[in-house]
Amino acid sequence: MGKTSKDKRDIYYRKAKEEGWRARSAFKLLQIDTECHIFDGVSKAVDLCAAPGSWSQVLARKLNENYKKALETGNASPPKIVAVDLQAMAPLEGVIQLQGDITNTNTAQQIIAHFDNTQADLVVCDGAPDVTGLHDMDIFIQSQLLLAALNITTHILRPGGTFVAKIFRAKDVSFLYAQLRIFFPYVYCTKPSSSRNSSIEAFVVCKDYSPPEGYKPHMLNPLLTHEPCNFEELTGVNRIIVPFVVCGDLNQPDSDMCYPLNLDGKKYKYHEPVQTPIAPPYAEALSLLENRRAGSSFTFDHETEFNETDINIAIENGASSMAEFKKNALITATENNSEDSDAIAKTESIKDENKEEEATIAALQNLYVSEEAGNIDNILI
Ligand SMILES: C[S@@+](CC[C@H](N)C(=O)[O-])C[C@H]1O[C@@H](n2cnc3c(N)ncnc32)[C@H](O)[C@@H]1O
Start and end of every Ribosomal RNA methyltransferase FtsJ domain (predicted)? Predict the structure, then answer.
């Protein structure tokens, strides 16, 4: 797998590097804006779950443009952008950065403190949990991130302001829409063309923040305080259907297609990612790779040699932890060097472990399907 394979498979990844965005997600926010005009008149914004920072880059650019326009009319307030993430983010000019968990009361309070006596015009949240592969679990965690973001938003957004957040369009998404409609008269579900069709991700655009009369922002969200809350109580008009808006016309590149490297008559030039992760889970692998490039060979505990290609393949295939990376790298290395009997034996046992893991996931998925069909008797676990 070469250096350019991802550039071929993912045009938005490639364009992000060419245009200087830290992540392909920048195009999602830009395409949402083209359709929904979320930056109009905005001078203060919060970016929740912001790392590596491409949405913050978009905010910085758009808010500066607004500031320059406002200066011409003489009624300008300088832009203010607060960005928060669990992970450390490389600095960005004009962006105040906080590192913390948005589902934690302390982080929420730190963000609110930055808006002491002022209010934000826009809050965006692109929060996504580390995917576990257990769909129900991933969907649950994602929706909890959205609720935590909404809770923080009710403390800092000015009346009339806008909230944009990632949402998974899954079972029971109408509960989330119902929650949002309590605070915003206009709630749209948008799908930018840079968001893969194969992904259940979409983005809610909520306009004209109007909290119910007498509503006082509080920290009693079950997520922030861990108090139980019965969402089943939402019935009737609370289960509303939200209009679905596709952002971007057919002229926009298709995020699920492979494109040739030389596109639209332009000669292809490789670009390094704009901002590489500053503390990635595969940091140890990268240091091994550097050692390798410096000429020293390295080994893992079972004395199997790994070469640069093995490591690149493991990283490209999205190993999310060192343990997973080692597993992938061992399998790849063994497939390339079938004479090492110890390594072959170890690989076989890893493959067996993987099969067991897959079987457990399949069994859990069956459980879900059977429950859905009201047929609990046939469950095989
Ligand atoms: C898809 S990325 C965001 C990409 C970002 N919008 C950009 O354009 O660069 C999702 C982010 O959500 C963050 N995240 C997940 N759970 C979080 C939490 N509980 N609190 C804060 N950040 C969280 C992750 O650390 C990750 O950086």
Answer: 21-209
